[in-house]
């Protein structure tokens, strides 16, 4: 283990670290938006659209991110739709993550007592008001454990971006190994970089889950 090799590679790993964080953040944010929209449409059984979203969820959940990225990066240009590698990564992560987030939200919404919905309808709430004041607040708290697990999962999935040459952490490590043949040093740096991201995040999400579970959120 040569510390000078590690020191020389730090700037490249810092750049990869920042890109991994940025793509994780944007992809997870997009996934949450898509997932929430899909789950609400499915919960209220909006005609036609709910079936389309159900088909999307099944397709996204049952195809690997690797195949989705290949399709976006190599197949779409054939029909004239060319995207940058970073855009493909964002779209792919959002496409996959949206389906998992939709299932997480749906699980939370399914836990809402039917009498809560009936009470809302009884006082004249429309679908939008039910979603805003009844379904979303209660369903969100019930969805937190599954959402937290999905966040961790999606961050780890960014390592697959290396197949379309996005210079995130895994791609950075593989490139350096290919050039300098120092696997031990670069793989150690890769593990440490992901640990710096995931361990604190896991602790924060665990605390959040506990606060939601025991009803002390916001205290």
Write the layout of secondary structure elements.
Blueprint: H1 3-43, H2 49-61, H3 65-75, H4 85-110, H5 114-122, H6 127-157, H7 169-180, H8 183-213
Helix pairs in contact: 1-2, 1-4, 1-6, 1-7, 1-8, 2-4, 3-4, 4-6, 5-6, 6-8, 7-8
- Which overall shape is indicated by the principal axes computed on the Cα atoms? flat
User: Which residues sit in consecutive blocks of at least 5 with pLDDT less than 50?
Assistant: none
Quick one: biggest sheet?
none
How widely separated are the two ends?
Answer: 48 Å
Q: In total, how many beta strands? A: 0
> What's the oligomerization state?
single chain
Mean of the pLDDT scores? 88
Number of helices: 8
Question: What is the beta-strand fraction?
Answer: under 5%
- Give the class from helix and strand content and strand pairing: mainly alpha
Q: Explain this structure to me?
A:
- There is one protein chain.
- With 219 residues, this protein is mainly α.
- The chain has helices at residues 3-43, 49-61, 65-75, 85-110, 114-122, 127-157, 169-180, 183-213.
- Helix 1 packs parallel to helix 8.
- The longest helix is centred in the N-terminal third of the chain and has 41 residues, at 3-43.
- The chain is flat, with a radius of gyration of 21 Å.
Give the tags:
mainly alpha; 219 residues; single chain; flat
